[in-house]
Amino acid sequence: MLALGGNAMTNAEGRAHPEDQIEAAGVAMAAVAELIAHDVEVVITHGNGPQVGNILVKNEMAAAVVPPVPLDWCGAQTQATLGFVLMDALDAAVAERGIEKHSATIVTRALVDPNDPGFVRPTKPIGRFLPAEEAQVLVGHGEVWEDRGAKGWRRVVASPEPLDILDAPAVLRLVDAGFVVVANGGGGIPVVRREDGSLAGVEAVIDKDFGAALLGMLVGADLLVVATDVPNAVLHYGTPEAEPIGRVTLSQMRAYAAEGHFASGSMGPKVDAVCRFVQGTELPAVITSLDRILDAVMNVGSTGTVVVPD
Length: 310
Ligand code: ADP
Ligand code: MG
Description:
Blueprint: E1 2-4, H1 18-37, E2 43-46, H2 49-61, H3 71-96, E3 103-106, E4 109-111, H4 117-120, E5 124-130, H5 132-140, E6 145-147, E7 153-157, E8 164-165, H6 168-176, E9 180-183, E10 189-193, E11 199-201, H7 208-218, E12 224-228, E13 234-235, E14 243-244, E15 247-249, H8 250-258, H9 267-281, E16 285-289, H10 293-298, E17 305-308
Parallel strand pairs: 1-2, 1-12, 2-9, 3-9, 4-10, 12-16, 15-17
Antiparallel strand pairs: 4-8, 5-7, 6-7, 10-11, 13-14, 16-17
Helix pairs in contact: 1-3, 2-3, 7-9, 8-9
This protein binds adenosine-5'-diphosphate and magnesium ion.
Residues 5-7, 47, 228-230, 233-234, 237, 261-263, 266-267 line the site of adenosine-5'-diphosphate.
C-alpha cells in the first residue's frame, strides 16, 4: 500500500498546473514501475489538496454563472482526474521497461460518523486565503472561515476519522486480477450512512494518510509505505539537534509523537497513520521519500523510518 504525498502530484512549490501534475506523476510512476518490475503488487493512494483548492477557486469565481459543487464532489473529481494522470504515467513507465501491467482507478468512498467531533468544530484548513470581506460572503452561505492573521481568512472543514473504505472490496478484486489500483485519493470521498441505509456525501476532508492506513489493512497489504518529500521522520526537526529516525518500535514511535516531535499538519498524521497500520496488522510500515521506495519495499529496514511491532 503506497501513499503518495503532494510532491508526487505538483511541482516542488506545490504548483498544480496540468503540466506540473503530469511531470510529477511521471517521476512517481517510474518508481512504481520499478516495484512492479520486482513483482510487487501495488495499491496507490494520493493526496489532492492543491487540486481541490483549485476547484474551490473556480467554485467561488463562477458562483454567479454555474452552481458550485460540494466538497465531496471535488473529492470525486480529483480522484478521477489524478487517477487518469497516474494511469497514463504508469502505462508509459511500464512500457518503457517492457512490462505488461494494467492499472485501474476506483472512485472510492470512505464512511465517516455524522457525529464525528470534527463536524462540530472544523479544524482542517482548505483552499486559498481571502480578505475578510470576501470570506464574510462565504460565511453567509454557511461556510466556516477563520482569521489566519496577515495572510487573510481561510476556510476550515471537518476532518473526520475514516471508519470504513466502502469500495475496498473492488480494490481487492482488481488487485487479485493483476491490476495496479489507484484508490481512495484524498483520503476517500467522505460519506455518511442515513437512517434509511442510503449514503450521502458530506462537506469534509479525510486525512489521506489515515485513509491509506485503513485501506492497507482492508486489502491485506504486507507493507504500508508513506512516500513524501523527506527521507525520514526526524526528531527535533529543523533544529541543530535534528536526528533522523531509522528502525523504531511502535511504542517508541508513539512516545516520540507524544513528545511533540511531529508537526500536526504534516509529519504528525503520517506517523499516526503508520502506527495505526503497525498496530492493526503486526506488520511494518515505512515513511520515506519517493525516490527511495524501491529500497524501502525490497529491503525493509534499509532506508527511511521503519516502524515495527513491539
Ligand atoms: P505530503 O504532502 O507528502 O503528504 P507533507 O508536506 O504534509 O506531506 O509533510 C511532509 C513535510 O513534513 C516535510 O517536508 C517536512 O517539512 C515536514 N515535517 C514536519 N515535522 C517533521 C519531522 N519531525 N520530521 C520530518 N519532516 C517533518
Ligand atoms: Mg506536502
